[in-house]
Amino acid sequence: MGLKKKGKYWYGTDTQDVQAEVVRFSQLNGYPATRFSSPVCPCGSLTFKLESDEEVGAARRVCATCGAVHLMGDSAQYADEAEFEHHVCVCREEVFQLLSSVALYAESNDVRWYYIGCMCMGCQLVGVFAHWKCEAGDAEAFLSAT
Q1: What DSSP element (H or E) covers 99?
Q2: Full-model pTM
Q3: 139: CB partners within 8 A, 6+ apart
């Protein structure tokens, strides 16, 4: 683990650093993330391009190895309305390791807020690239679809 701040951005070396940044960001947002899941493509790849529409509350990942497209969380319910925007790092890289994270309602396992943390495969910048309020029900079921 080696989360370091350079200028206004944070950089890391692994998904633990992405998780640390998601925790920091989510606490500042007022809805601390407590559950985490790192997506893996069926082909075994851990790296993806990310597209999202935060207004609608939908995201999809595109495998950097095989090109398979995966809707994340409950995004299948909102994908038809979404205008997906492609995420690009400040270094212009488009491939990331992702970390899906959720904040829960008090004393429940129900999702309240969704965070998508990223680590750039080019420069190792880490950050929350998308987040929104999310009434998705059971956290385990939600995260298993990320």
Answers
A1: strand 96-104
A2: 0.94
A3: 35, 102, 104, 109, 110, 111
Instruction: Quick: pLDDT tens for 115-144.
Output: 999 999 999 999 999 999 988 888 988 888
Cα separation, 37 vs 6, whole angstroms: 26
Instruction: Give the pLDDT of residue 7.
Output: 93
Burial of 106 (0-12, 13-18, 19+ CB in 10 A): exposed
CA 111 to CA 104: how far, in whole Å? 5
Q: Is residue 54 left, alpha or beta, with left meaning phi > 0 and alpha meaning psi from -120 to 50?
A: alpha
C-alpha pair distances (Å), 17 with each of 26, 59, 68: 14, 22, 26
CB 130 within 8 Å of CB 54? yes
What angle (nearest 5°) sits at the alpha carbon of residue 131, between those of residues 97 and 44?
Answer: 25
Task: State mean pLDDT over 87-98.
Answer: 97
Q: Measured in whole angstroms, how far is the alpha carbon of residue 74 from the centre of its chain?
A: 13
Angle at 51 between CA 81 and CA 47, to 5 degrees: 145
Token pair of 94 as six digits: 């488009």
